[in-house]
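Sync notes, pocket subgroup
Present: LS, DG
LS reminded everyone that the earlier model was apo-only. Rerun requested with guanosine-5'-monophosphate included. Inputs:
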Amino acid sequence: MSPQPIPVPEPDWNAIGDAFREARRFLITTHVNPDGDGLGAELGLWAYLKSRGKDVRIVNPDPLPPRYAFLEELGHYESYTPAEHEAVIADRDIVVVLDISKWERLDGLGERLSRSDARTVCIDHHPFEANGMADLYAVDLKAAATGQLVYEMIRAWNHEVDPVMATGFYVSILTDTGSFRFSNSDARAHRVAAELISLGLDPNDLYEKVYGNSSLARIRLLGEALSTLRVELEGNVILLVLSREMMDRHGALASDTEGFVDIARTVQGSEGVGLLMERADGKIKTSLRSKGRISVNRIATRFGGGGHELASGATLEGPLDEAIGSLLAAFADEIARHGTRPAG
Ligand code: 5GP
Ligand code: MN
């Protein structure tokens, strides 16, 4: 018997609105290795709460990746250190967790926040786990981006969206839809994007800031990664493998690899793609993508990770060769569940 699906709590904007109205001091956060969606949603919510006169801090487990440095001109992002943030955390009324619904994905900050007396509100679009993290949830798996949900929340409250909020929400949707290319690029996402553009933001300017601003290290590393990509499991799986030595030789940061896996995903005939990157601590960060038939979320979950059905990630133990072997075995199992493709 297959497990019963966990009911997903429908967004109740009224309940969240009441909680926000009563509270004064907010902390906003998003997952480790923050992406454009989490960071954009944070900026939009931060600007909204400021406009309501709230005391609000964005505190993340990780620093802002260099490619998102332009967001720092609009909002203020802090990276958690116990010494600096203990007093801040202790006096918060509300913690808003964006783009994830489990404390583990916030590392040490999550551990600290899980012991806080503040009410926790979670706004997310990832598959839901009933783990009791939050007091109030707004989870919508059909939302293209968490930033889109935060936008819809603010509009549901009939509040104006200003240019800073609009920038955050647009960056969320732009990045989580892969520039309006992925299967989540639905009418709703385009409609919200159109509303944001009609407020006066410049889509080309934001595209250039996010995607037209690569470090040379990123492009050189991409060249090497593509020229050494591995075709595995009879062409069903493409792997991009980034050893520590490659990363260091190019002077590349983990955030420089964002989007590599989506390029590899365009190779015809494969079912799925995996990127493996050896981190400085010897662990192996993987990013997984499916072309539509297989669930990479199921694969990532086997390694303690997660994500969406078609885009997931996990961190594996090293060494690299063993991680490659385990990942391929998991891909093979997942492909077998769906049967092989007809030849040709
Ligand atoms: P990416 O491969 O772009 O880093 O992430 C793809 C999706 O998987 C995103 O929704 C991201 O939040 C999620 N994801 C990536 N790594 C992990 C992980 O280690 N654990 C969990 N739970 N989700 C992850
Ligand atoms: Mn997201």
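DG: The mean pLDDT is 95.
LS: The chain is about 40% helix and 20% strand.
Action: DG to write up.
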